[in-house]
Amino acid sequence: MKRITRILSILTVVLILFTLAACGQSKKEAPGQGAAPAQEQAGQAKKVKVGLLTGVAGLGDKSFNDLAYEGAKKAEKDLSIQLKVVEPPDLASTEGLLRDLAKAGNDLVIGVGFDMKDPMDKVAAEFPNTKFAIVDATVDKPNVASLVFKEHEGSFLVGALAGMMTKTNKIGAIPAMDIPFLNRFTRAYEQGAKYVNPKVQVIVQPIGSDFSAFNDPAKAKSIALAMYNQGVDIIYHAAGGSGAGLFEAAKEAKKYAIGCNSDQDYMAEGLILTSMMKRVDVAVYNTIKKVVDGSFSGGVNVFGVANDGIGVSEMKYTRDLIGAEKIKKLDELKKGIIDGSIKVIDVLETQK
């Protein structure tokens, strides 16, 4: 009897030990169920943080700021980054805002606009372990990717189209300011127009003398209406959000306009012949992707006609108006730019 009792006691102990072992294993495996949350937490810890500082004109410009934002939002969706977007109230605030984004622990801080060159140069030096990118300027720092575009190539192409389409041999251009960066657009536009039509006259009228000129559609509209009244029948802008004023003028005067940076053809259907496309969205997205996959490096990244960083819109509303012959001519000019047989004026290069 005692032997049976001892056997039962041993079996009971074994059963208890087995139960404890099983419970211990289930606790390890409940985090084995919890392995997913743990991995998610690890994934969250590794989530890349990106800070985007727009240009002073801010979002809603239907131009380069909106393009940068679209590229960053696509990265947020596709690459699961954590995105912070800031709009500066003025140029003077950009240095402090760049610094704030770096201090906040962002892995990548992006500044949109050539006017941020000096602020970024200073802030990037203060945060050597933070990655930076700047649109439309070159900052010579090992932790800065400079995203620059050959706007002159696209401006040449839309100028050529204007030269082929004008009936009065008078075309116009409205830059935000009279500065080398924007003269790069207007000079190449003039070159393209005269390349196909030596008789054409090009009138250029800047909007203002400070960065508020990028967000003054009323002034742009006034200038455009005056040009149209002088016999100009096609106007190109290089003025960010102010371009909306040109399009309003085109509607009133029933004359043609050309968009800039993004596909703005829809803003006055049938009256915007085409838009010079500057793929800031692609440049921003690809830069973020490089941070995510670990291939980011500082240096200059150039986008032009040859790598589809610059081009013209598909002319959705005007292809029939323009005609196959002129579109074919644009394709030939594009090939000439790529193979070097056409040398497009670059104001920034000539001033070095």
TrEMBL record:
It comes from the Bacteria. The keyword Nucleus does not apply. Keywords: Cell membrane, Lipoprotein, Membrane, Signal. It is a lipid-anchor. Residues 53-344 form the ABC transporter substrate-binding protein PnrA-like domain. Pfam families: Bmp (PF02608). It is found in: Cell membrane. Gene3D superfamilies: 3.40.50.2300. The keyword Lipoprotein applies. InterPro entries: BMP_lipoprotein, Peripla_BP_I, PnrA-like. GO terms for cellular component: plasma membrane. Belongs to the BMP lipoprotein family. This is Membrane lipoprotein TmpC.
